[in-house]
Write a structure and sequence with these properties.
This protein is of the alpha+beta class. The chain contains twelve helices and 17 strands. A hairpin with a 5-residue loop joins strand 16 and strand 17.
């Protein structure tokens, strides 16, 4: 239950108070109620009207509650006690919240036993969903006329209704408050009443199942079968019935936890507990289709506002960043302008020297790596057989391709393989037999080879010979 005050649009404060309404009584829980340890307030009620008119005894009780709290207006979070609501676990196809609400509202009589009149429904889906399988849903329904009577009585007494939910949602929230480990583990909560025992299943901090058994320990074995021997179970509610069910479960080797700490006093009475934790979202909340659409529109509007604010902040940050970049760039340009005259002369001289060294290095490397084509051609002339002649020589880098004609191309191939300075000799294309002008035929060959880089000594000898021959 939320009991903190919040500021309204004016200077006044609106109070959020939790109440639990049954067919015969209303209970309220508020930190300002100091008459009991549980901060609870109780008033009797007449039976609710069946025609949707104002529930006069409820309106009168809410007037008394406002006087007891010393508040002229406030906000109510309401828990409806059984049998005013019906709560069931259903297996339904995976649906969006709006579609799920519409399905249950329009087919309430199909899913709820007591839905003989128009119903207002709510649903809470489990976080665990298996693909391709029905999704477990805890659904609640209450008569539209009853909900209208409750809202009309609250409005007549000056209250604003914030939410209406079944008591099971509040009990599940109370169990999580009593035993905080239930928020992260699969667990069960037993709520003991004088006429029955409610078993609530909680998974990942949400209500995922509701079952009812007989009061006390009459159905202890059935409860043990439902929860298993290792389940975490907390027991709240009427102290006498609570002790009875705990003892019966202990007899079948099922351990239970009893309330302790801040909320132990509220846990003594299921109605007080429902009022204390009203307004939580652990389980289903009763909402009309219009309310769902209004919430969706409000969420969409809030999303757009947040997105707009984020975009504005992003643009402002981008503008500031851009201004900072331009400012730093201007400072850098000014500094460079100061240094430019001092560096210009040094850079020109250094650039010229560096370029000269690069050219010399490139020429030296080229001279060292370039094949001595004069010696290669001379070696070819000596190696080619007398009956063969070359028609073309093509060279690129260290690759050499020769075209020619011969009586037997194989002899030319063998001769080139034995030529000093040539390696990887191979046919560049198939040998063709060609008819010559005199009527004879010769082999046309195309042979490729790689020129081996000469050793430093051979290169020096060749260079010296070339220079000597040039001088003569």
């Amino acid at each position: 239950m939320v009991t903190a005050a919040r500021a309204d649009s004016g200077s006044k404060k609106r109070i959020r108070t939790g109440v639990a309404i049954s067919p015969t009584a209303i209970r309220a829980a508020d930190i300002r109620l100091r008459s009991s340890a549980s901060r609870a307030w109780l008033a009797p009620l007449d039976s609710p009207p069946t025609d949707g008119s104002v529930w006069s005894s409820l309106a009168s009780a809410l007037d008394d509650l406002a006087r007891a709290l010393g508040a002229s207006e406030g906000v109510l979070s309401i828990s409806l006690m059984p049998p005013l609501t019906e709560v069931r676990r259903l297996e339904l196809p995976p649906l969006a919240e709006e579609d799920l609400q519409r399905l249950l509202s329009r087919n309430a009589s199909r899913y709820f036993v007591n839905a003989r009149t128009p119903q207002i429904v709510g649903a809470s889906s489990s976080k665990r969903r298996a693909r391709g399988k029905p999704s477990p849903v805890v659904a609640a329904a209450a008569s539209t006329r009853l909900v209208a009577s409750v809202r009309a009585a609250a409005e007549q007494a000056g209250w604003t209704v914030d939410s209406i939910a079944p008591a099971e949602s509040a009990w599940a929230a109370g169990a999580i408050a009593l035993w905080p480990a239930f928020a992260k583990q699969d667990s069960y909560a037993l709520v003991a009443h004088e006429d029955r025992t409610d078993l609530l299943q909680i998974e990942d901090g949400r209500l995922t199942g509701v079952r009812r058994f007989r009061a006390g320990g009459a159905d202890a074995s059935m409860i043990a079968d439902a929860v298993g021997p290792t389940a975490r179970i907390g027991v709240a509610g009427s102290s006498g019935e609570r002790r009875a069910i705990s003892a019966a479960l202990a007899a079948v080797n099922v351990t239970t936890s009893t309330p302790s700490g801040e909320w132990s006093a509220a846990a003594e009475d299921a109605d007080v507990m429902a009022a204390q934790f009203a307004g939580t979202d652990v389980g289903p909340t009763l909402r009309t289709e219009g309310a769902v659409a209004a919430d969706k529109a409000s969420a969409r509007k809030m999303t757009l506002i947040i997105a707009g604010a984020a975009a504005a902040l992003f643009l402002a940050a981008a503008g500031i960043q851009l201004w900072g970049v331009h400012h730093q760039l201007a400072l850098v340009r000014a500094e460079r302008a100061k240094l430019k005259p001092q560096l210009s002369s040094t850079l020109v001289g250094r650039t010229t020297v560096d370029a000269t060294y690069r050219h010399l290095a490139a020429l030296a490397t080229s001279e060292r790596n370039a094949p001595r084509w004069s010696s290669v051609i001379a070696a070819l002339s000596e190696s080619v057989p007398e009956d063969a002649h070359l028609t073309a020589i093509r060279a690129r880098s260290d690759s050499l391709i020769v075209d020619g004609l011969a009586q037997h191309a194989a002899r030319v191939f063998d001769a080139l393989e034995k030529t000093h300075g040539l390696v990887e000799v191979k046919a560049a294309s198939p040998v063709r037999r060609e008819l010559q002008d005199g009527g004879s035929t010769l082999d046309h060959f195309v042979i490729g080879a790689r020129v081996v880089k000469p050793s430093p000594l051979e290169a020096a000898t060749t260079t010296a010979s070339t220079r000597k021959g040039g001088g003569q």
